[in-house]
Every structure is written in C-alpha cells, then in structure tokens.
Amino acid sequence: MSGAASLSQAYFAGLQAALAKSGICEPVLLIDKTRLNQNIDTLKGFLPRGMAYRIVAKSLPSEQLLVHVAKRACTNRLMSFNAAMVAQLLARLPDYDQLLGKPVPVAALAQMLGGLKPSQKKSLSNVQWLVDTPERASQYGALARAQKLPLRINLEIDVGLHRGGMAPGEGLQAALDEIVNTPELSLSGLMGYEPHLAKLPKLAGWPARAKTATQKIYAQALAQSTAALGARHVKTMVRNMAGSPTFRLYKDTQLANELAAGSTLVKPSDFDTPMLKLFVPAAFIATPALKVENGVRVPGGEQAGDLLQAISPGTSVFTHGGYWMASAVYPKGLAPSPLMGRSSNQELLVGPAALARGKLAVDEFVFLRPHQSEAVFLQFPKLAIFEKGRIVDIWEPLPVSA
Ligand SMILES: Cc1ncc(COP(=O)(O)O)c(C=O)c1O
User: Fold this and answer.
1) How many other C-beta atoms lie within 10 A of the C-beta of residue 183?
2) pTM for the full predicted model
3) 233, 187 contact by CB (below 8 A)
4) 390 near 21, Cβ under 8 Å?
5) Given the CA of residue 244, which atom of ligand 1 is nearest to it?
6) What count of Cα atoms within 13 Å lies in the side-chain half-sphere of residue 254?
C-alpha cells in the first residue's frame, strides 16, 4: 500500500459500507487507523538512532489521536501552538512535555495562568515557552519574577525561514543573558524550524547550500548557548528542528536531538512530496450526497434565452456541507463548479454523467482528501476511526483555539 495510488474504488466502497453500518449519516472526518499506524511506523523507522520525536499537536488535534500516536511512537513530547491549547493539553495530558511552536504574547500567558487550576499549575514545569526576541525574554522574565513562577524557555532561532526568531549574535545574547540573570527562567532548548528546505527550487545547488547554512546557523546558536550555560546543559537540553517536510534530512543527533512532525501521519495532500512518498493518506472527509441530479443546470438558466445552454452534460452532486480545504477523491472526477460558487452549506460538485446513472445514490458518501489537517480536523464534531472494515471508535477533536 503506498501513496494516493492505493485509494481504489474497493477501498472507498469499504469505507462507505463501514459508515453505513455504523449509522453515521452526516459529515465526518474519517481516520484510517491501519494507515495511520503504518505512517507512525514509517516515521519511527526514519528517525536516526537516539533521535527523539515530538508530535505536532496542532496537526493532529484530538486527545485520543495524540495519545494513540504517543503510545505507538513511544514519546510523550507534544508541540502546542497557543495559550488555550497549552491549557487544554495541561488539563488532558498533564504529564506530557509541551513545547510551544510559536511565541505567545506575555498577556495571553498571564491570562492563561490566571485560569489554571492549582493542580494544572504544577504541570507547568512540563511546558517550554517559545521566546523569539530579547524583548519577549525580558517580558517573560518580568512575569516570572512577579509571580515567582519558574518558566522553561526555548529560544526560537531563525535558521533561514525568516518567520521571526533570533539569529546568533547580539539579540540571542540578550535573551540568553535575561535567562541567566533571572533565577525563575531556565533555558530548556533551542528551536530551529526550516520547512523551506523542502520547497526551494533545485537550481544551481540552492537547496544544498540552504541546508548547510541552516546547520551552520543552528550550530552557532548552540555554541553561543554553550558559552552562556555550559556544554553539559546544551548537550542535554531540547534541540528541536524540522517538521513533516524536512524531518528526513536528519541522519544523526549532532545538531538536533529531537524532530517534530505531525501532518505526515495523516498525510493531507499538501504533503504529497517526494520525500514523504512512503507515507499514505490516512484522513478523509466523508459527507453525504444530498442530491444527485442528471445534468448541470445553470441557476436561472431557463430564462437566459439564447445566451447559454440551460443544461449541460454531467452529474450535479450537492453535498452536505462543503467548501472545506479539501478536494473530492471519490467518486472520481468530482470538482466544485464555478456556476454556483463555493458553499459551506450545500456545495455543488460536478462529475461525470455516469454518476447519476446509478454510480452514486442519494445519501451515499462522497469522500474528500484534506489539503491540510490542522484547520480541517477542527471543523468536525467527530473523528470516525476506521479499522479492518469497521468504524471502531469515535474520537473527539480538541476545542477550537487560536
Ligand atoms: C515550529 C514548527 N515545528 C514543526 C512544524 C511541523 O508540523 P507538521 O509536521 O504538521 O507540518 C510546524 C508546523 O507549522 C511548526 O510551526
């Protein structure tokens, strides 16, 4: 089983039958557990010896899903992305280590702290706050001092992505000094995210040079941290790099000692890249076809006179919901129509004429493959877990957070 090629008619007929048998009759996000497990094992197989794995929680936003991945991949490391998500995960999975994948304004951190239960406050020692500038380092320092609250700080290094973060040099030094001089702060690690490495055009050695530059910048940041905190500290702290598009670039633990990835485990279509070709799509939107009609009728077309043909060949399928960040994959040949525009309520998908001739019945499911998982999963109240021909479980998405 590999890639999108294995998404056969028989495969979707199996999903269709399982959904019908389980009584699901409304839009649902379906996760194929066998394929998910295959992806987890593939990812683990690619990790160099001694490399830790951190699950990107925003890309797999469901408590049960995160726990399943954590158990199978033997990790308790999560990457969370905002204060609300930190609080959700502290409440649900207090013993997991959380590294923020983006900086949180100090006011949002203060508000979140105010809302925590005393028991959750204890687990705050499992959270690493991402700090991207010396200014944010001093704001966090001030908060930690005022609240007499120890905070673990992970510093974001700009290794070439240019999405913020510090370059080695003055700014990084100021942030390190703030940490060294504030007893409540400790340096838990460095983060260097570099997804651009997988996207650069293969022109005149550009990707290879960019990879070398990334490594050099990260190494310089590590050397600067070593000067501030000592070699032992830097050797054992979290040295995070990568994401789904790039984790395969790492062959040893000399620089990074942990890699983050999430999306590739369910492989939305934005992750159809050569480096991820051994990963298989494992998440689909299944939504009922509420109306299946022969031909495609222009709204109001009967009154158009000679301006246009009121009906053209094909099948019109109106789905329950729509306008997701996703493309229809089954039945084959379905695509949104410019005639109606997009609709989140009942979307018109136009397909081959044969569909209306018995290939797709009203209330049967249309399957779409998400382009990305992080936003799409959160649009569904239920994640239906498919395994060995059956819906074996219903998992819940995490509450929406921003
Ligand atoms: C800091 C950071 N690390 C890693 C990732 C990778 O996530 P995924 O593997 O889901 O692409 C992201 C994604 O946005 C990120 O922002």
Assistant:
1) 12
2) 0.96
3) yes
4) yes
5) 9
6) 9
Domains of the chain with CATH codes: 33-265 (3.20.20.10)
Q: Kindly report the CA angle at 39 between 48 and 65, in degrees rounded to 5?
A: 110
Q: How far is the CA of 261 from the centre of ligand 1 (A)?
A: 6
The answer to whether 297 and 290 have CB atoms below 8 angstroms apart is: no
Identify the bridge partners of residue 100 per DSSP, sorted by sequence position. 80
pLDDT along the chain (402 residues), means of 10: 69 98 98 98 98 98 98 98 96 97 98 91 95 98 97 98 98 98 98 97 94 98 98 98 98 98 98 97 98 93 80 94 98 93 96 94 98 97 97 97 86
Q: Tell me the C-alpha distance between 43 and 197, whole Å.
A: 19
pLDDT digits (tens, 9 = 90+) for 86-119: 999 999 999 999 999 999 999 999 999 999 988 8
Tell me which residues have their CB closer than 6 angstroms to ligand 1.
56, 59, 79, 101, 193, 243-244, 260-264
Locus of tokens 């399943």: 68
**What is each CA distance from 185 to 41, 214, 225, 309, 378, in whole angstroms?**
37, 27, 14, 70, 34
Q: Tokens 């380092």 — which residue?
A: 137
Give the separation between CA 201 and CA 207, rounded to whole angstroms. 7
| pLDDT one-digit tens code per residue, 127-145 | 999 999 999 999 999 999 9
Note the helical H segments in 295-389. 374-377
Q: How many Å lie between the centroid of ligand 1 and the Cα of residue 135?
A: 24
| Ligand 1: residue whose CA is nearest its atom 3 | 243
Q: Where are the beta strands (DSSP E) in 70-229?
A: 77-80, 97-100, 127-131, 151-156, 185-192
> Which ligand 1 atom sits nearest the alpha carbon of residue 191?
1
Identify which of 212, 219, 218 has the alpha carbon closest to the alpha carbon of residue 197: 212
- From the number of C-beta atoms within 10 Å of its C-beta (0-12, 13-18, 19+), residue 71 rates as exposed
Nearest to 198 by CA among 299, 270, 130: 270
CA geometry: angle 46, 188, 186, nearest 5 deg:
175
CA of 120 to the centre of ligand 1 (A): 26
